[in-house]
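Here is one chain, start to finish.
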Amino acid sequence: MAVLCCLKFNNNFYAKKYLEETQTKLKSWHLAWHIKSSCIMPSAISNLESSMNLQHKLGSVQILSQYPVKGLDAQNLQSIDLQSAVDRQYALLYTSRPSSVPSAGWRHKSNFLCAYTAGKLLKKFQTFFSQNGTKIVIHERATNQQILSADLSKEKDRASVELFFEKVCGEPVSLVRGPHFGNTNVGATKGNGNLNVIHIINAATVREISNRLKVPVCCTRFRPNVVVDDGLPAWHEFQLVGGMIQIGSCTFKILGRTIRCDATRVDACHPGNDELDMPALLRENWPEHGEYLGVYAQLVVTKESSGEETIVRVGDVVTLVSSPPPAVDLWALSMPWRVLHSLGALTYLMAAVELLSQMKGGLGWMLNFLAFLLSVNWSISRDGGPGGFLQRTDHAVAYSVIAYNYHLASMWPGGILGVLSDQWTTLQVQAFVVCHLALPVFFLEDVLRKQCHVEPWVHYGVAHFLWRLIGGYGGLLVARASRNTTVLF
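Its structure:
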């Protein structure tokens, strides 16, 4: 029989201290590991610590970029001081288009001449920047011929840049300067109120996209500031949202995922792939993630860390500082809230029974019955998260029910406009009003989830319950108000 040599911690202060530190690390990683024994092999502790250190490492920085002028080429760097970075410090603002500036000072990218509004046009030009990002040289990409050289710190040179791009795009533009003309306001809404954020891409994710689509796809297509490799598996960067990471000596909070737009059609590395509709391809091939790729992060500066180095370098190791909170999805709701979410759909079932009893064709009752089934199925399914196939199907059927209600109302006296000429009965007017009450509730749910970031029980439980209750009840009233009406189907 093998003999297990144990170390008695009760008699060894240093060993006991070592175990306490190990247990603290285990707790910080939420590992389901409970050390109950009074003795443990020292080699086991050593192996466990090694595995935890490997778990901490997320990869290393492979590419480091900034974009001094929004929409133009990247400036690839070996190191960058985040306190003095000029990422998207300049932008070409359309001056002939109406533009609203919210209190945070962020403008949507549709207001700028950039990769989103004119990706193929700007791809014709190759731009080079000086180390500090103030001097720019523009070449024609096809011929490599220099077209323009300017110092952005000088007013006269900025005017020449404006004139050049006005001729190119056919619209007046102004070269404006600010702290950060980024593609998102997530720094203000979810961060410290500052718009300055960095965009991080996981190279493993891009490789998976390239392999599945069987076309070469470059990380630069997604205009990142930092490309991380040799650590995170594909798509695992999304699991970091809400957590903290460290790159070199800098700590960042991961604020949110990056939604992709038409700007990702342009790929300077592979000009022949400009027709890839990346948002659509992401939706079709990775519906569990939707149109998202990459994450936004913000530098964390505290009183203790102020004055410390804020330099990020190529080759810096990326590590996890603190785990994000557990991912919240529909399945995370407790049973009462999921039941409430489903109960709202009972009115669809009641509308289906009403239409079936009238024997006015099969489409109406089948649509309402299908809306009931899909709503309940989505409520209890593990695949019922936002943006998934079940959600999109459920919403499509719900919209079809609304369209069918309009069809029924169009058969009433005076058609849809009968409500304005007092040709409808009181029940018909009530039904029409109730049906339309569902629309503001639907948009409220969307705002609560995307903008206000409320607890899931609020938008998935309460708001969805009200939306389905009102929408289905409106359909029930429409069906009852159509008893004496002949319908086409």
